Amino acid sequence: MNKLTKEKRNQLVLTVVIILLIAMGLYSGLIRYQQATLRNLDLEHQKANKKLTQMDEISKSGSKVDAELAGITKELADRENEMASGDLYASMINSIRDFNKPYQVEIKQFASKGSSEMNLFTKYPYQQFTVSVTGTAYYHDIGKFIADFENHFRSSRILNLDLLPDNSKEKEKLTFKMDIVSLIKPTELPVKK
């Protein structure tokens, strides 16, 4: 068997070369093509998974936004409950008197300036009601009252504060006049005719 004729040996080498060429052709033509197709499919699969993950995150953030909206809506409703409602003048006077009980501020007079469009901010969806308040107190007591009032009633502001010496026997006492502006609860807005 070791001895092959030259012609048979050439035929054998030619057959081996042809088989190798066919195998290389099959590899480069079919197998490489299939490998490239599998790589492309894997990349598309990764992109689809990434997109799915992004969509899940968006879906989760949507429910988070809904929860935040519900919280903000509740806070707005709570703040609107603090606003003047019903008989606006009586509501404001009662709120101021109830709030003033622990303070050393003597309120002598209330005067209604009525309701109007909001003039602190443009295009604001609320109207405002203004009450003018006159009274006497010591400087420190007036400052504490104003600071606590604005911190307690977040929908009200004190404007146009005038301080003058009081003509009473107590030299350090002051007479004050201020406007208290409160937002009107939207369901309680006066009907315009």
What does it look like?
Helices cover 54% and strands 23% of the residues. The radius of gyration is 43 Å and the shape is rod-shaped. The chain folds into two domains: 8-82; 88-186, Alpha-Beta Plaits, CATH 3.30.70. The longest helix has 77 residues, at 6-82. It has three helices and four strands, in the order ααββαββ. The chain has 193 residues and is α+β, with helices and mostly antiparallel strands. The mean pLDDT is 83. It has helices spanning 6-82, 88-100, 139-152; strands spanning 106-117, 127-138, 156-165, 173-183. It has a four-stranded antiparallel β-sheet with strand order 1-2-4-3.
- Gyration radius, rounded: 43 Å
Mean pLDDT: 83
Major sheet: 4 strands, antiparallel
Number of domains: 2
Using the coordinates shown, work out and report the CATH topology of the largest domain: Alpha-Beta Plaits
Shape: rod-shaped
User: Count of DSSP helices?
Assistant: 3
Instruction: Estimate the strand proportion.
Output: 15-25%
Helix content: 40-55%
Low-confidence stretches: none
Summarize it.
The protein is an alpha+beta fold and 193 residues long. Helix content is 54%, strand content 23%.
State the main characteristics.
single chain; 193 residues; alpha+beta; Alpha-Beta Plaits; rod-shaped
